[in-house]
Amino acid sequence: MAKTKEFSSLYELFEAIPDERAAIAYFRAIRWANGEFCPYCGHDKVYGFSNGKTWKCAQCRQRFSIRVGTVFEDSKIPLRKWIAAIWMITTHSKGIASTTLAHDIDVQQKTAWFMMHRLRHAARTRSFNRKLRGTVEVDEGYFGGKDSNKHRAKRGKTKKSLAVGMLEREGEVRVVPIKSTSAMPYHVLTHVSKDARLMSDEAPVLTMLGETFDHTTVNHSRGQYGDGGDGHTNSIEGFWALVKRQIYGIHHWVSAKHLERYLEEITWRYNRRDVKERFRVAEFLTRVDGRLTYRDLIAAG
Ligand SMILES: [Zn+2]
């Protein structure tokens, strides 16, 4: 299989992928890196048509495009524009607004909005079976409501969306939307290795975790931000600040219904902060399996 192309700018991307046929060839090299297969039955013998866009399965005889079974299925947007959108969403450190994407790749704003949500769907973390190790900071993040940036004790009673964040220092972050803080211990037990060192604030709901983990608590209300050593939750708090800057700064407002997808996008970017820009498009394209229809998107939440 040909070596996957790399790009260092949007300009290079368009030069390397000059037309739709080149975009299909590019995606094909990634999707079929381990050999061709039929998206309907999984059979490994398929015939390509001379148009370079259509294949037929030797077993189930169905015709298909390279998009079938991916988030691009049923989309009329050229794959070349999708690849440009992936470049933009993976290299702009705070993400991009759908209005910006619409303008830059020349599609309608509603189309751009749907594209972004499909890409967020693809960005879902799928490495959840690896438990977080080492020192792991745990904290909840609140979204929505005018006082969302205030500390817990100062917040009012306005309805907010909530998520638990678990951050492995020098490693990955995991974020899971929750209905109530009482769900936090369950997610910590699910995502964090029992031999990890846990850092959190003194939320009573988390005290039971001391039975399972080496658990250090930090008292923020007494103005104690760490003990001078490594007992702090600065990393996860920094992550929440990043999330809030993006959600309120770029998107201005995110409904509770779609919060999970925004969190997935931001988490994806954070966990690949050390992946060089030029590899990010190809890396993203390895994970676009699975459809997300407009109906699913609207019904979400
Ligand atoms: Zn087949």
What attributes does this structure have?
301 residues, alpha/beta, five-stranded mixed β-sheet, three-stranded antiparallel β-sheet, binds zinc ion
Distance between the termini: 41 Å
What is the averaged pLDDT score?
84
Strand content: 5-15%
Major β-sheet profile:
5 strands, mixed
Task: Enumerate how many helices there are, as a single number.
Answer: 10
Total number of beta strands? 8
H-E order: HHEEEHHHEEEHEEHHHH
What is the helix content? 25-40%
As a whole number of angstroms, the C-alpha radius of gyration is 22 Å
Q: What sort of overall outline do the alpha carbons produce when their principal axes are compared?
A: elongated
Low-confidence stretches: none
Ligands in the model, by name, code or SMILES, are: zinc ion
Structural class: alpha/beta
Order of adjacent strands in the largest pleated sheet: 6-5-4-7-8
Would you summarize the structure shown here?
The chain has 301 residues and is of the alpha/beta class.
Task: Give a verbal description of the structure.
The chain is α/β, with parallel strands linked by helices. Helix 4 packs across helix 5 (109-122). The longest helix has 16 residues, at 234-249. The model has no long low-confidence stretch (mean pLDDT 84). The chain contains ten helices and eight strands.
